[in-house]
Amino acid sequence: KESLDQGLQKTKEGFLGKLTRAVAGKSTVDEEVLDNLEEALVSADVGIDTTVKIIDRIEKRVAKDKYLGTTELNRLLQEEIEALLVEAPDQGYKDFELPGGKKPYVILVVGVNGVGKTTTIGKLAHQFKRAGKSVLLGAADTFRAAAVDQLTIWSERVGVPIVKKEMGADPASVAFDAVNSAVAKGVDVLLIDTAGRLHNKAHLMDELSKIRRVIQKVIPEAPHDVLLVLDGSTGQNAVEQARHFTAATQVTSLAITKLDGTAKGGVVLAIADQFKIPVRFIGVGEKAEDLLVFDRHEFVDSLFK
Ligand code: GDP
């Protein structure tokens, strides 16, 4: 809770400061207040479409009970924002528990280089291990030597095994070996890193389909989760990447990184609203502990505190 409040500090400052100014000295929600609200939301990177949706809903509700103080307006806003965030269909990863009784639980991690994909995998390994689970990493981003090296560093740091091959090896064959090894070792969770080069959508789609196919040769219902990692500090760029990846493969959950150090945390709302995919994790720092299980109520609560 504390690290969430700290992690969202910059977003809160920008967002709340503007919201407060938007309603300062007003006791009714008029055109001007709504305009100011709109501006505050857009500048926190909530995005135009989602902002308009929020404002519309507030306008509808305000018409019913016209006189509103700042506190009530804040409450209304909180409710509307929370309603936009998709509730995960299952209990998700609450306390880093795994949904269902599947073993190994296979998480395919996708995303563009530089967004914090490797770090997120390392943090997840750490958190799952802390929650008492056995973890295996699969280094299927074989296009960059650095990707394998960095994942290896995380595997040593956290103390979990890794399946890897030389640079340039077939990513699908690494994934295949990793799943087989996970089954043989009886591990609880397998995290597979993938390459995220963006220049060619068809290529990305082929690569990810191929990886899925080989995983399914071993475990037909896997991957159990396809986690897209997005860099929250890139604002609307992250929205573009989400569009790209959801078109290339079936993404089932999101991790949004680097929310510390950015005032663009509102992008979480834009992405959740536009893609209707649950945000599972948020990154609020570089250390292994700096990955939080996303809870929409806590998130919104923290934004308004
Ligand atoms: P990848 O290329 O997507 O695998 O990206 P990396 O995992 O190597 O991360 C790129 C940089 O972002 C590294 O310097 C990480 O320490 C940093 N990073 C990753 N997640 C976070 C986060 O949540 N907050 C902050 N401040 N930095 C992060």
Question: What's this, in brief?
Answer:
The protein is an alpha/beta fold and 305 residues long. Helix content is 51%, strand content 13%.
Q: Which key terms come to mind for this protein?
A:
305 residues, 8-stranded mixed β-sheet, binds guanosine-5'-diphosphate
Q: How do the strands and helices of this protein lay out in sequence?
A:
Elements: H1 2-7, H2 9-23, H3 31-43, H4 48-64, H5 70-84, E1 105-110, H6 117-130, E2 135-140, H7 145-158, E3 162-163, H8 171-185, E4 189-194, H9 201-218, E5 225-231, H10 236-248, E6 253-257, H11 267-275, E7 279-283, E8 291-293, H12 296-303
Parallel strand pairs: 1-4, 1-5, 2-3, 2-4, 5-6, 6-7
Antiparallel strand pairs: 7-8
Guanosine-5'-diphosphate binds next to helix 6.
Secondary structure class reads: alpha/beta
The whole-number mean of residue pLDDT values reads 89
How far from one another are the termini? 12 Å
Radius of gyration: 21 Å
Q: Quick one: how many beta strands?
A: 8
Anisotropy-based shape: elongated
Into which percent range does the helicity of residues fall?
A: 40-55%
The small-molecule ligands in this entry are: guanosine-5'-diphosphate
Low-confidence stretches: none
Number of helices: 12
Strand content: 5-15%
Main sheet: strand order:
3-2-4-1-5-6-7-8
Order of helices and strands: HHHHHEHEHEHEHEHEHEEH
Describe this structure in words.
By secondary structure, this protein is α/β, with parallel strands linked by helices. The protein contains 12 helices and 8 strands. The protein has an 8-stranded mixed β-sheet, sandwiched between helices. Helix 10 (236-248) runs parallel beside helix 11 (267-275). The longest helix has 18 residues, at 201-218. The chain binds guanosine-5'-diphosphate. Guanosine-5'-diphosphate binds at residues 113-119, 150, 257-258, 260-261, 283-286, 290. Guanosine-5'-diphosphate binds next to helix 6.
